[in-house]
Amino acid sequence: MNQQKQLYLLAKQLYKEKLWNDYLETDLIAIQLANRKEPIIVSVLGQTDPRYGFLFYRNLEELACFFEARIRAKQQNSRTIPDVTYLQSGLSLEFEDRAVVSEEEYKLIKDSGVSFRGKKSWPIFVDYFPGYYPSIIDESDNVLLIEVMEKLVETAKDFKKKLTIYKEKKQLTEILIRTYQKNDTYKDGLFRLPKNVMEGTSQLKKMAPIFLTSFEMERVSSQKIGSSIWEIDIDFMNSPVVSIEGERPFFPLALLIVDSEESEIICSEFFKPGDSETIQRLMIQLILSENKKPPKIVVNTDQYYRVARYLENLLINLEIELVPIQKLPMLSAFKKELLAYL
Fold first, then answer.
1. Does position 340 have pLDDT exceeding 90, yes or no?
2. Alpha carbons 235 and 221: distance in angstroms, whole number
3. What is the pTM of this model?
4. What angle do CA 315, 321, 327 make, to 5 degrees?
5. Which tens digits make up the pLDDT trace of 321-332?
6. What 3-state DSSP class applies to 74?
7. What are the residues whose beta carbons fall under 8 Å from the beta carbon of 164, sequence distance 6 or more?
């Protein structure tokens, strides 16, 4: 049997189980395969999410995206998880209406020979990568998905019986896990989630090194310290773009900087996720054009790690303090107007 047919047969089987009737998204299931270092963590979508399906986190770094979404929802005082497509990382199986299925996805289903019909019953396999638009999974992921989905059918049915009992006994930092040996025997237990994973993606990202030349650093370091504090914001735009034809669409990051003394935006630029060099060059160009360095730059608390990831090492070298605060007084208003205009 070819891999595509196996995938869609397993998708059909999982759909019939309707595990979303018994599992919340937070009832995570861990499956430790014999040939992998870290367990695959599965979240079942459907009870509180408009989508039906499954999210497969291939490692703990990807799982941190799940908790990042929960944190964002809490910050927004929302009962439902906001759209954090640009933050997600992992693979998913989602069931959609036929009208939503793209021609490429429909062809894969037809070629598999497995039939589907009905509302919210057509399977779509999606690959998520932070900062980029979701795409169809690569064939190289088929083997892993097949193995996990095969074991998920049995594991989720077994765990369903134990769910209530385990909820009473386990801590919030523990999830159910089934560990498989090479001979396919298994042992059930509890898996303790690392604290930094539960704190979201911000805690797992390393700070970017300085990408500027020594000449550039000497030039900007020689600038005098001004009196005005700058406010900074780096956030994803909601609409993806394509910079090169054939390239995967990405969600651009918007960099906004406000001079609090002058009450004006002194920088508004867009850059590609992960492009630390571009944002560092934008920062030194701004300092040189203003002929001064700010004594400190303030950032919203929930964005501190994102800004620090790109700029902390540079700012430390320039002796500019990066300070998290609860609310940016001027930038909040500017950002609202700018996003409404865009």
1. no
2. 27
3. 0.85
4. 115
5. 999 998 887 887
6. helix
7. none
